């Protein structure tokens, strides 16, 4: 690590480490790092009195620069500093530089800090005692080397600020830190702070550079500014009294952070008491500001890329879940806190015909922009196929083909379910995904045990369709494996823990006695929070995305669904109109009689004329009035353009004009043509009760 950091800092061709043999003082090369291999015949062994840069650095006990391409690899010179132990030099760190000229003072200070850190981490080397605020620069350099390692592991801008707080403040006795970045509008925004009250940090967040004279001088000149007392600050910058009076500090080191040839921000190290800054301290802090600037620039690029990926993923997930007559839902998506890239977890709730609801949750295997984009494609495909009223197994056939076409390394787990509130069933298919969990109205919790098909992309059709019988009201709980599986917990243990949490929650709160939809959704949101906090107590330690979808299902009341069989001849239209008039009068929907008669006349007439029997009519009263006509034909009805001389061809145009929406779904041995009409304002479903017999 030390060789890599030293080579990068100096823009070198090769970095070398020599260790001093205690017996004869010779230097043995123990490691090298670079793109150009170095021959062992030249520097593999160096005598203590040789003129090579490593030997001279050990003899001198300090920095050495030797100009020239000593090893014939195209270097402009060699910079070397000793590895220092408690009793003197124990070796040397050398960098063969590629640029013209000797390294500058900042690079020299950094090279010395890296060498001190490396020596401090080699076993068996006696180390200098830990320094206090006035300790030796060599010991401080060792601690600064630890900053190098910490910054190498920092991923985000907040990680960089935390590394500076942990490794810069203690060696210098500082008790304040403010790390700010400069945006395109010349405003400074705080990305991390320590030792300052929140009021002051908020004051400095978004501060215009033009109004901050102190920082303006530092940023524009790229020169650090060391202010040793408040009196000196007020003397140099009298216009900044508004800021200085609110700052709890008495001495400051304003350090510009430079990366890629431009100033990207400011690192302010501060002290609660006035203090002088020695020349060695100024040099070392200046060198550190360059190191922090490079790390912060890298972290900001990661933050921006990560933010764009998160925005992409949020845009692909549903912003809100629909509130449907048969279902209300709440969901949580928790991105992984560790690792790079976004995941491919998704969920959706899709309204179908006849108040049925499609419920889907899935997980594209892998992390990254490509996986997030694949997730978006699959979610769109599921929505499109669900709108065609495909059964779960047939939908998975199509979805499996789509995933397979993406490549041999593309896989996705998925669970797709269709809840029918009239039949009180939930039909579902599962491909490599965790099974659903059902919370019943009496508080009991269970989960079906069925054999899941392989993940999409690895499966071979046909897929299996499973069916659950649901009571009047239930909670259907779906999740991705990131919620229930971790390095310390397998899937089965996680499922058992999830069922335990749901059982405890159901026993303390009634999720089936709610005042209205808002109350229903509020309780589901609270249940999501309860589950997530119990299964992922430390969300910052997760290594996989986690998705959770909880759906409150409600079955259709028997009085809101009626149906009858019709004759398979021209009399059927008249029977349908008569049935509609009687039923709508019972439901108090007389305003819809004329329109509904026209709709059922057209649909029944088409069934008698173009399809085959048996013919059946069903009416559902919900937020809309749903009319369904069943027949035994699989022919697809479609709207066509009728010419002015055509005697027919306008029936479906009439249906589309009179209904809110309409469509067809296909069943085993037949099809159903359905329409939806908006209920009159002020006529909520169930406004008129009845006990008349019905046939569903």
Computed structural class: alpha+beta
Tally of helical runs: 20
How are the strands of the biggest sheet laid out side by side?
3-2-1-6-5-4
Distance between the termini: 74 Å
- The fraction of residues in strands falls at 25-35%
**Rg calc:** 37 Å
Stretches where pLDDT is under 50 for at least 5 consecutive residues are: 127-135, 686-696
Coarse shape: elongated
Largest sheet: 6 strands, antiparallel
* Overall pLDDT score: 84
Roughly how much helix do the residues carry, as a percent range? 25-40%
Strand tally:
27
Describe this structure in words.
This protein is of the alpha+beta class and 696 residues long. Helix content is 36%, strand content 26%. The chain has 20 helices and 27 strands. The strands form 5 sheets. A 6-stranded antiparallel β-sheet has the order 3-2-1-6-5-4, with helices on both faces. A 6-stranded antiparallel β-sheet has the order 9-8-7-12-11-10, sandwiched between helices. The protein has a 5-stranded antiparallel β-sheet with strand order 13-22-21-18-19. Helix 1 (2-10) runs antiparallel to helix 4. The longest helix is centred in the middle third of the chain and has 38 residues, at 279-316. The chain is elongated and about 115 Å long. The relative contact order is 0.06. Mean pLDDT is 84; it is low at 127-135 and 686-696.
């Amino acid at each position: 690590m030390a060789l890599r950091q030293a080579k990068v800092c100096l823009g070198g061709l090769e970095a070398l480490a020599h260790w001093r043999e205690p017996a004869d003082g010779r230097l043995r090369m123990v490691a090298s790092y670079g793109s150009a291999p170095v021959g062992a015949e030249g520097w593999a062994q160096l005598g203590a009195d040789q003129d090579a840069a490593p030997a001279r650095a050990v003899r001198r006990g300090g920095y050495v620069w030797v100009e020239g391409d000593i090893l014939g690899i195209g270097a402009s010179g060699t910079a070397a500093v000793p590895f220092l132990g408690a009793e003197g030099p124990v070796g040397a760190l050398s960098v063969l530089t590629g640029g013209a000229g000797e390294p500058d003072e900042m690079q020299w200070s950094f090279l010395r800090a890296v060498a001190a850190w490396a020596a401090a981490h080699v076993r068996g080397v006696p180390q200098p005692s830990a320094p206090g605020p006035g300790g030796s620069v060599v010991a401080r350099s060792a601690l600064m080397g630890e900053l190098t390692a910490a910054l190498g592991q920092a991923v985000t801008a907040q990680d960089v600020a935390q590394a500076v707080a942990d490794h810069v403040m203690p060696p210098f006795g500082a008790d304040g830190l403010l790390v700010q970045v400069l945006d395109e509008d010349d405003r400074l925004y705080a990305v991390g702070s320590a030792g300052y009250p929140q009021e002051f940090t908020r004051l400095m967040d978004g501060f215009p550079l033009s109004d901050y004279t102190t920082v303006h001088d530092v940023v524009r000149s790229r020169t650090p500014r060391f202010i040793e007392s408040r009196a000196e600050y007020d003397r140099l910058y009298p216009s900044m009294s508004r800021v200085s009076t609110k700052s709890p500090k008495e001495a400051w080191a304003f350090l510009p952070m430079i990366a890629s040839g431009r100033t990207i921000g400011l690192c302010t190290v501060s002290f609660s008491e006035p203090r002088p800054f020695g020349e060695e301290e100024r040099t070392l802090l200046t060198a550190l500001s360059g190191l922090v600037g490079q790390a912060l620039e890298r972290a900001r690029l990661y933050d921006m890329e990560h933010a764009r990926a998160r925005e992409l993923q949020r845009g692909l997930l549903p912003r809100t879940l629909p509130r449907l007559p048969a279902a209300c839902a709440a969901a949580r998506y928790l991105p992984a806190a560790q690792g790079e890239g976004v995941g491919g977890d998704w969920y959706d709730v899709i309204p179908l015909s006849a108040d049925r609801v499609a419920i889907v949750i899935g997980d594209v295997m892998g992390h990254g922009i490509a996986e997030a984009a694949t997730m978006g494609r699959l979610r769109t495909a599921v929505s499109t196929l669900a709108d065609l009223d495909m059964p779960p197994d047939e939908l998975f056939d199509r979805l499996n083909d789509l995933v397979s076409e993406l490549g041999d390394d593309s896989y996705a787990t998925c669970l797709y379910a269709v809840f029918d509130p009239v039949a009180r069933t939930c039909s579902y298919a599962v491909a490599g995904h965790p099974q659903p969990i059902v919370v019943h109205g009496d508080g009991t919790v269970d989960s079906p045990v069925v054999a899941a098909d392989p993940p999409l992309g690895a499966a071979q059709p046909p897929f299996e369709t499973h069916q659950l019988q649901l009571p009047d009201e239930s909670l259907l709980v779906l999740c991705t494996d990131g919620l229930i599986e971790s390095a310390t917990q397998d899937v089965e243990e996680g499922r058992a823990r999830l069922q335990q949490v749901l059982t405890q929650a159901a026993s303390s709160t009634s999720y089936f006695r709610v005042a209205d939809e808002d109350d229903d959704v509020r309780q589901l949101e609270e249940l999501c929070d309860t589950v997530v906090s119990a299964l992922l107590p430390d969300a910052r330690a997760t290594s996989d995305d986690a998705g959770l979808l909880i759906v409150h299902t409600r079955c259709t009341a028997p009085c809101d669904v009626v149906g009858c069989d019709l004759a398979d001849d021209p009399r059927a239209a008249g029977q349908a109109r008569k049935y509609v008039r009687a039923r709508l009068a019972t439901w108090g929907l007389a305003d819809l009689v004329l329109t509904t008669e026209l709709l059922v006349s057209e649909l029944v007439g088409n069934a008698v004329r173009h399809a085959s029997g048996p013919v059946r009519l069903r009416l559902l009263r919900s937020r809309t009035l749903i009319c369904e006509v069943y027949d035994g034909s699989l022919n697809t009805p479609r709207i066509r353009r009728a010419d002015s001389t055509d005697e027919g061809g306008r029936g479906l145009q009439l249906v589309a004009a009179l209904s809110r929406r309409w469509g067809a779904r296909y069943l085993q041995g037949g099809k159903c043509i359905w329409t939806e009409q908006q209920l009159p304002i002020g006529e909520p479903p169930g406004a008129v009760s009845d006990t008349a017999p019905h046939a569903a």
